[in-house]
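Record type: monomer structure entry
Structure origin: computed from sequence
Chain ID: A
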Amino acid sequence: MTRKLISFDWAIKKILRSKANFGILEGFLSELLFTDITIIEVLESEGNQENKNDKFNRVDIKVTDSNQQIIIIEIQYSRELDYLQRILYASSKAISEHMDQGDAYSGVSKVISINILYFDFGKGSDYIYHGKTHFVGLHDNHELELTEEQKQLYTAEKIADIYPEYYLIEIRNFNDIAKDTLDEWIYFLKNEQIEDNFTAKGLKQAQETLDVLKMNKDERLAYDYHQKQLHHEASLYESTYVLGEMNGLEKGIEQGIEEGILITAKNMKQAGIDIKTIAQVTSLSIEQIYNL
């Protein structure tokens, strides 16, 4: 029987930032980008800091590909109506946060934004979308190319190789039929399960590392509360969206999520989970938890 595994959003926030578990993320990124990815480090940024207003999961990592090109990859897991603007803002922020003052613009890092979407997003039937930047002539319809000097300066062949790229993975559109190794990863992201015959890079390590049954009692309780909170947020998001209450929508969602976090923390406290664990899971302060 295939075991249930820890959800990817929890793994990103709590487990996959550890160097010992880099192989899992490297496997996922290698399958998605069709090149061998090696993680250099997890980058500290404002987006990676945990606080009570951090309603999405994001991790920025510096990697090299098979050509030894250094790339900043940001992985996001979120549920927001303004998500297109969110990923544009986040990729721009990743560039500015990790560029030293005084550096030449030619040293701007390549950024790849990978977005795992567990909600209906846009109109389309595919489950993986890839976006790049191209400059096309209005009159001759020819794509603008780099000169030989620019290719050397940027160590790139095309303009699209310089600008941010975006991957949108729409989990709900996947039909649960894994036709290749990338599909095997999408299957895991959707179902939190890995079939024994799967061979995609990183999945065997994920199967071992993300086994729910290997959690201790406090970890399991914290994880269960986290899952309940996700269901609460999803219900709040969808019910509000369906009703079409667009005025003050974001404010209402924010208030509902904050109330849900307080309720979660209170229930965890009553269940006997230690204060430090509650603070880590909810991002509330120790003082806030004591006063519940």
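Annotation 1: The first helix runs from residue 8 to 14.
Annotation 2: The CA atoms of residues 48 and 116 lie 16 Å apart.
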